[in-house]
Amino acid sequence: MKMTIVLRVSCGIFLAIALFFLWYSVAADYGYKAVSGTYTFASNEERSTLVLKSDRSFQQELSKHGKVERATGTWRRIGESGVAFSKEFLILSGQEPGADGTAYGEFHKNFGFLVSLTLSQYHVLWYGRVDPSPTNTVFGTYTGDENGVSASLVLKPDHTFAQAINTLGVTKQAKGSWSFGQNGAIVFSKNFLKTSGEALRSDETASAWDPKGSNLQVQIALTSSSGVPTYRKNQFF
Amino acid sequence: MGRWMSPDLVNVTEDRLMAPSSTLNKYAYAANNPLKYIDPDGRDVTYFYDQGGIAGHAILFAYNQATGDSAIESFGPEYKLPIAPGVSMFEMNDFTSADDLRSKLTSLTIQTTPELAQQVIDYIRANPDPALWIAPGPNCSSEVWKILQKFKLGQKASPLDAKPGQLPRNVWKTLIFQYNPSQQGITPKNGQDYGNPRFDMFNLMWLSLPQSQPKATVTTTTTNCVTDDKGNRTCNTF
After folding, report:
1. Best residue of B80, B92, B101, B205 to probe chain A, by most A CBs closer than 10 Å
2. To probe the interface with A, which of B65, B92, B190, B198 has the most A CB atoms within 10 Å?
3. Which of A124, A185, A205, B111 is 20 to 30 Å from the Cα of B197, by its Cα?
């Protein structure tokens, strides 16, 4: 009788460990095979289907206001669970691609197995200081750090800024204002130019940390009322 | 003396050629333009926090821009199991550019003295990662935290705090409390450095990765020849 209980407890412990190993191997796996499949997205205005294949290609269909667009391209993993799509990716409402137009996202596994894909809603531009600061102040001249783009930004003490973006020989300039927002963050007016040379859209904001070091990190973010755009994987069919 | 004479074939991309600050020279000081960017010291230790996956990932990057020396601590499992053989430079091959690093990682840079940064670099090189990776430790966080503690760069605020060595998130929380307390409680954003960063750090880290190393090298030698009284010619090459 005593032997049977010991045996049962031992079997139970062994089974629990085996199940944990099995669960962990699924939950921690964000490899190409594990996350490939068919994903769907639906909001009030948009419907989209995204098929990720393990050969790193994707097919996407986006319908918006009765208009249907289709795209094919490639995708690749970055880091633990990140993903980057080729430029063909159709941008959803509420999604903010990177400075060069690359769409970034992140895979998630609820309970370790329910896979979803959230699309990035911001990107960060780094501007390096090019003039010595006599005091610990943000006023000064900065230059951008994006591939293929020459960018400069001058923050003036009167809370105005001047910016120039040169892409492939075409220069765009902007003047605007900046102010200190919550937590001492620097908030730029809508005139601020993105790396593409375009001004901020009405639903975008540009803000930066007060640079303790030698650079300004400008976050271009979306103020989406509809939340983070999220694709959900069709798990069981 | 050795010189890089040709670019790394793997990494010659249009983007990199177009971006002066993103060249193949990993030893670039202040993006190869010391007069342009303000970089008075150039020795740092940066904690990189990848928030994705089952528990995230912790990476430590120590670099000395003055000499171009750098080292990366990134320990992880070879297989997706709670216990697996350990590998160094974990997940680094998934990154293909400096922009990848920036878009995916949150960072916190601690500016140090040149001597300390070099000690961290030397320590990472001299101490191989454990042979076995185990989810509760030794893991990426425990190895990073070990280094931060050894060089007194990371200190727990209270003995009651969560163990930083267990999870990347705990290392992050401990460091943000220590170095930037005003940002405690925020959701860290990828691409942002919450410490005291310098310009071009992502490019420098990218160029420090093994796959970014220039592969083609040419060794330049100098030959001195002397002819003695008897007409014998002796040459020394060095």
Report:
1. B80
2. B190
3. A205
What is the overall mean pLDDT for chain A? 88
What is d(CA A135, CA A110) in angstroms, rounded to the nearest whole number?
49
Say yes or no to pLDDT of B212 above 70: no
CB A56 within 8 A of CB A190: no
| Contact between B91 and A79 using a beta-carbon 8 Å cutoff | yes
Contact A128 B38 (CB under 8 A): yes
- In this complex, the residue of A31, A147, A219 whose CB is nearest that of residue B192 is A219
- Which residues of chain A have a pLDDT value below 50? none
Q: Which stretches of B127-167 are DSSP H helices? A: 140-150
Q: Is A228 helix (H, G, I), strand (E, B) or coil?
A: coil
Residues near A124 by beta carbon (within 8 Å), at least 6 away in sequence: A217, A218, A219, A220, B102, B189, B190, B191, B192
**Does the model's ipTM exceed the 0.85 cut?**
yes
Quote the CA–CA distance of B94 and A78 in Å, as a whole number.
5
pLDDT of B134 reads: 95
- Compute the distance between CA of residue A58 and CA of residue A86 in angstroms, rounded to an integer: 9
The partner residue sitting opposite A147, judged by closest CB among B38, B99, B198, is B99
Measured on CA atoms in the order A210, A215, A219, A220, is the torsion positive or negative? positive
- Number of residue pairs across A and B with CB atoms under 8 Å? 144
**CA separation for the pair A120, A117 (Å, rounded):** 10
Q: Residue B180 corresponds to which tokens in the numbers above? A: 């930037």
